[in-house]
Write a sequence for this structure.
């Protein structure tokens, strides 16, 4: 990842949740030009990371700053991911996504760091997109404990925004779309498993469009917010191109060297089957059909304007090729 300009000074950066998927990729992208520290529930040695502190250290870091590194920026990634199986209790989301954000931001206000980047989610803004595209102007209407806990964390930060401004500190709230890249484990991996087994996709008649965030574009954006004179605020982040599920399957088959098996069954027939599934509690029900076929396009225009760029550095299709290739290597 040699995309970044080499014109700014090295910074001391603290990344919470550093051992997760996004944290690990940020370390790889930033370790050559910045000094990286971690904050996590586990603290194994990690290439590119000077030291990983525990959350129990946070109090001492605030009370005895002279005994710890002087940070220039804090990137808060730690959180509980969306549980698609709905097996987690709601309070767990608030304890982690809201509670840890409060602790991290309170420490930021006491620390030497001048920039704070909080990773929220587009699900904090809207469970579904009304209209053509989701922008930062939307009135947040999250649905479910994941989005609700993220918006609660955002509100806590925004409630202390004036205090941060008085201290000449800059705050960024990022709302990424579904993040993908090598090493990613989630719904895309599940879809890849279906495609790899040669199971036909029966919803080809729905040309839905969805926004995603390649890990390369995410790392590029974070580097820009840390080092450039971008105004603070809420930013949606995603690739420039929205893709349909049909296109995702085609890209997966391209990596597998296969022809896509996409069935374009009649929409009315599928919707009738889904209604029956709702009554009989089958896997395909009306709500699941909506989720699989809805449009969810997110604007990244505000972020690009703040970074002073015309387009993101990674094409969506290229990012997915890298992601799919990693799935192939994992299966082999």
């Amino acid at each position: 990842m040699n995309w970044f300009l080499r014109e700014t000074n090295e910074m001391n950066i603290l990344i919470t949740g550093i051992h997760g998927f996004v944290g690990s990729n940020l370390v790889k992208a930033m370790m050559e030009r910045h000094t990286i520290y971690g904050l996590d529930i586990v603290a194994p040695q990690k290439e590119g990371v000077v030291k990983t502190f525990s959350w129990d250290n946070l109090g001492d870091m605030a009370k005895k700053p002279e005994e710890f590194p002087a940070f220039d920026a804090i990137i808060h990634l730690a959180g509980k991911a969306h549980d698609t199986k709905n097996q987690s209790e709601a309070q767990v989301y608030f304890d982690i996504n809201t509670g840890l954000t409060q602790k991290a931001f309170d420490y930021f206000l006491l620390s030497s760091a001048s920039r704070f980047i909080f990773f929220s989610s587009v699900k904090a803004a809207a469970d579904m997109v009304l209209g053509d595209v989701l922008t930062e102007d939307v009135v947040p209407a999250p649905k479910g404990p994941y989005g609700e806990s993220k918006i609660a964390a955002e509100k806590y930060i925004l409630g202390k925004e004036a205090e941060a401004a008085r201290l000449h500190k800059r705050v960024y709230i990022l709302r990424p779309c579904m993040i993908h890249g090598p090493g990613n484990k989630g719904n895309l991996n599940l879809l890849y498993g279906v495609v790899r087994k040669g199971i036909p996709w029966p919803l080809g008649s729905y040309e839905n469009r969805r926004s995603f965030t390649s890990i390369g574009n995410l790392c590029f954006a974070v580097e820009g917010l840390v080092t450039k004179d971008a105004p603070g605020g809420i930013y949606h982040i995603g690739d420039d191109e929205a893709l349909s599920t049909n296109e995702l399957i085609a890209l997966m088959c391209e990596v597998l060297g296969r022809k896509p098996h996409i069935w374009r069954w009649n929409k009315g027939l599928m919707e009738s089957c889904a209604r029956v599934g709702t009554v009989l509690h089958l896997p395909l029900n009306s709500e699941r059909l909506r989720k699989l076929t809805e449009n969810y396009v997110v604007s990244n225009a505000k972020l690009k304007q703040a970074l002073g760029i015309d387009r993101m550095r990674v094409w969506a299709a290229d990012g997915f090729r890298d992601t799919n290739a990693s799935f192939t290597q994992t299966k082999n």
Summary: The beta strands are 12-16, 35-39, 49-53, 73-76, 115-119, 170-176, 178-180, 212-214, 233-237. The longest strand covers residues 170-176. The domain at 12-248+289-331 is CATH 3.40.50.720 (Rossmann fold). Residues 211 and 297 are 5 Å apart (CA to CA).
